[in-house]
Amino acid sequence: QVQLVESGGGLVQAGGSLTLSCSASGRTFSMYSMGWFRQGPGKEREFVARITSRANTYYADSVKGRFAISRDNDKNTVYLQMNSLKPEDTAVYYCAGSQVMTTIPRSGFDWGQGTQVTVSS
Predict the structure, then answer these.
(1) 70 pLDDT exceeds 80?
(2) What Rg, from alpha-carbon coordinates, does the chain have?
(3) CA distances (Å), origin 85, targets 14, 32, 50, 62
(4) pLDDT value for 20
(5) What span, in angstroms and rounded, lies between the C-alpha atoms of 52 and 29?
(6) What does the pLDDT read at residue 92?
(7) DSSP structure string for 34-45
(8) Which of 55, 57, 106, 117 is deepest in the core (most CB within 10 A)?
(9) C-alpha–C-alpha distance, residues 32 and 30, integer Å
């Protein structure tokens, strides 16, 4: 119901910052909860952060205090600001949207194509 496209990934050194964007198309964006997930090499896709339609936020313990999720409903865009990046943050980052966003990735979510984030030590 919502098409999502991520951008902003790239290379950054440890301790640096990077901001990801997820552009959404569709008329239901403002009613969706949005989330960021990531999948590192040889690992399962894991929850990173979510934001509700009312802009309430929730973070995985591994990124709490370092990452910030936000949304701009007028621009149909959700962001992930990543600070104090660590090599273990290296992964493909995926944007997801749903009426109900959980920490468990679900096939019923709308998913973006992913964007690579690589953090060098």
Answers:
(1) yes
(2) 13
(3) 5, 28, 19, 11
(4) 98
(5) 11
(6) 98
(7) EEEEEE-TTS--
(8) 117
(9) 6
> Is residue 7 within 8 Å of residue 93, measured between CB atoms?
no
Residue 1 has pLDDT above 80, yes or no: no
Q: Give the three-class secondary structure for 77.
A: strand
CB 81 within 8 A of CB 70: yes
Residue 25's SS3 state is strand
- Beta-carbon count within 10 A of 98 CB: 18
The residue whose two tokens read 């998913």 is 111
pLDDT of residue 26: 78
Name the helix (H) or strand (E) containing 106. Answer: none
The SS3 of residue 47 is strand
Cβ atoms of 120 and 14 within 8 Å: the answer is: yes
Does position 46 have pLDDT exceeding 90, yes or no?
yes
Contacts of 120 by beta carbon, 8 Å cutoff, 6+ apart? 11, 12, 13, 14, 87
Q: Report the C-alpha gap between 109 and 96 in whole angstroms.
A: 6
